[in-house]
Structures are given as C-alpha cells and as structure tokens.
Amino acid sequence: MTPPHHLLKSLNSYTIALMLGFALLILLLSGILEFPSVSSLIPSAKGYRLQANSTPDPFSDLFGAFRKWDAQVGCSQFRDKHKGLVKNRSLAFQEIDGELGCGEVEMGHVSVLVEGWTWVPDNLDNLYSCRCGLSCLWTKSSVLADKPDALLFETVSPPVQLHGHAEWRILDILSREAFGEKWSKWIRAFKFSIDVANLVNEVMSHDKGICKLKRRNGEPLRVYMNLEAGRKRSDREDLFISYHAKDDVQATYAGALFHNNRNYQLSSYKNNDTLVYWSSSRCLPQRNKLAIALLKLLPHHSFGKCLNNVGGLDMALTLYPDCVKDQNSAPQWWDHLHCAMSHYKFVLAIENTVTESYVTEKLFYALDSGAVPIYFGAPNVWDFVPPHSIIDGTKFASMEELASYVKGLANDPIAYAEYHAWRRCGVMGSYVKARAASLDTLPCRLCEAVSRRGGRNARAL
C-alpha cells in the first residue's frame, strides 16, 4: 500500500531537518561554526600575542600611533571584532535606568541628609531631577534637609538608637556586661554626650548579646555605605550601599565625581625609556611582592612611599612641571595624579584585595589618564572595563612573559593604539553599566530606593 502523498512530504521534511541538525552539530563540535559567548570575549594568554614578524617601532607620539591605527585598522573593524559585547548582559550589575517600573516610586520628592562621611565628595550635594518625576535632595546640611527621608552614613556605621525605656535598658546592660556596676552612675549622667554615644556604638558593634536597635516608625531610613572590599553591613541600616550587585544599592568606582578638581591636563607624549608608572603609599606585603616581581623586569618610575625610586614623594612635579595645578597653593598628590600618569604608556594597578567585583579607582585612574593599565585584581574585571582596554596580568604564565609582552607592545604603535580604541570608537559592552551604576548616579538611585520603601513612612523592622 502506497503511503499518502502528504505523509511522504512530512517524512521528507522531518528527514531533511534531522540531517541539517546533525550537520550543524558536527560543525559546532569541529569548531568551524561558533556562537559568541561572554567567556570567548575575555582575553586569554593567546589574546595578548603580538604579531611575530612585526618590526620594532619605538614611538613617543600618541597622536602618531592613532593615525597609524586609523590607517591600518580603524573603528569599523574594531567594532565588528567586539560586536558580541553589544548585547552582553552582565550579572555584575543591578537593573538600572528604566528597568524598574515607575509605579514602584511612591514619593515625588526625597531628601537625603549625609550624616557621617570620609570621602563622599562635596560636589554630590545637589538637587537632582531623576526619572519618574522624582526630585532628590542630597545634602550635608540639616538646614536644607530639616526633615530628611533618609540619613546616610559612609564608612562610619549608623549609631545605635536608644529610645525611652529601651535607652535605660541598654545602658543598664552596658553597665553590667561591659563596664561593671561602678560605671553605671557615670554612664547615666552623661548618656546624652557624643562621647558616650560613640562608646555605646562601639560596644554594640562588638556583639556581646546586646540587642541592636534600629529606627522607629516615622523616623528617617538609615543608609550605610561601605565600599571597602569586605562589604560588611552594620546590622543597623535599612539600606546598604556597596560595590556588588547583591547589595541594596550598587555603587561602582567607575564614576568621575569622586576625583574632580584635579589637573586633567594629559600629555600626548609617552615616555619611551621609562615604560611603567606605579604609585602606592600603603605598603602591603603581598602587593609589594607582586610589584617587585614585575617592575624588576621593566623600566619604571615608582612614586609614593612603597618602592620609591624617583628620589622622594614629591618628584612628580619636578619631572613634569606642566602638571602643577595651582602655583599659589601647596601641591597635593591627587592634584596631579592623572597628569603624571599620562606621560607613561603603562600604569601598574594592583588591588589591595582580590575579590569579585571589587574594581577600584586604582584601575579607573589609569584608564582616565590615557595610559594602559596592567591590572591585578578582581577575577571578573572584564565586566567593568571596555573591550581591549587593559592588560590582565593574571592571564600570563609568568612575570617574564608579561614583561616581554609589555615591552613588545611599547614598540608597536598600532597594537598600542588599539588599547585606546574604546574611547575613540564608542563605548561598548558592560562598561556602560559600570558607569551607570557608579557614584555619579548614586543620588537618584538611592532616592528611588528610599521612595520605593516609603521613606519615613516605611515600617520599622
């Protein structure tokens, strides 16, 4: 019996689809056909190889290197090479900019009073017009924010709040458990002083079974910001700000606001004899050991207190007088940091701590100065930087291999210029999100978070 015509047609279609599927599988397994993945966009040691037959071409003129790169490579080819990054969605960042519905924003205006800080910049103080019609006042003045919706504490953790009978109960516990009965009268007599408040706060931070009190209903939300590697919460905040996507509000180091008011004059002339800039004044043993291992193989200038080889801490302005910010004021190291870095082809950037997403100003200073960072730090650093913008030192088998690559790159103007292509051809990849989640945008994003919780009307936990 002959099968119906439509059945034969279905069988033929199925057979063809099956054959195409097997063919596609063979191509994928053989490596002939590949789909872009995030891991394939992260450079390996192979990605750092220079052309074997390239003739050394020592150069000092950065503009000249750009012209050669434009003639032989160009932005179109660079963008095509990294096109897989355009739609890359990194898990290193929170959902930002319109990805949260405006319906969740309960308040039209939010005021944040900055109570305790160490380096939160003054130029964050402002009245912001945010998305969803929200206005946001960020200020250090209790005159401007007399009834704040949130109190922000940066590095200094929120103090313990003592109320009514609970106040005396806590003081009794402190007297009995921490200091003994003989201090009871003294503590009660000075319970409203700042010194005792700080003392209470300190004892409470060393958990001895003492209850940690948070805010009451109707009081401002308490916000704690800690951008240090440990990201340790105080257990007394309603909102926690740090650098990781898992925190309540994320704030990366990729912004510009916390290093404003500096000399941003950048040099187009690159030292060809002294290749690497390094500066560190916190001489951590492990970081010094790593720096010594690399710098002994490369001509370098080491500023700062650690491994200084330039004859003192203030030699940058002697070497580069064009970096003086103000002739009438005493120089500070941060005034001329970017300008001094810009004279070098490379800047060594080593994090204090190696942990996920902890990518600090050490790297972004180098990028902003127009140098190429040699980086040792966060394993997911490529989530935070533009494509082909840094040299990841961890991708090399040895310091000798890394030093050899750096020397070769310093004598290859076209290959070196490609490390600057990201800023000349347009920013791509997740670096866009790193900037969007930075300190620059923190006020609006924090005010949104406060608004979603209802500010003072939020239910106390």
TrEMBL record:
UniProt entry tagged with the keyword Mitochondrion: no
GO cellular component entries: Golgi cisterna membrane
Molecular-function annotations in GO: alpha-(1->3)-fucosyltransferase activity
EC number: 2.4.1.-
Enzyme class: transferase
Keywords: Glycosyltransferase, Golgi apparatus, Membrane, Transferase, Transmembrane, Transmembrane helix
Membrane topology listed for this record: Single-pass type II membrane protein
Cross-referenced InterPro entries: Alpha-1_3/4-FUT_pln, Glyco_tran_10_C, Glyco_trans_10, GT10-like_C_sf
Annotated TM spans: 12-33
Entry keyword Transmembrane helix: yes
Pathways per UniProt: Protein modification; protein glycosylation
Alphabetized Pfam families for the sequence: Glyco_transf_10
Residue span, Fucosyltransferase C-terminal domain: 271-453
Cellular localisation: Golgi apparatus, Golgi stack membrane
Sequence similarity: Belongs to the glycosyltransferase 10 family.
Name of the protein: Fucosyltransferase
Naturally occurring in which organism (per UniProt): Rhododendron simsii
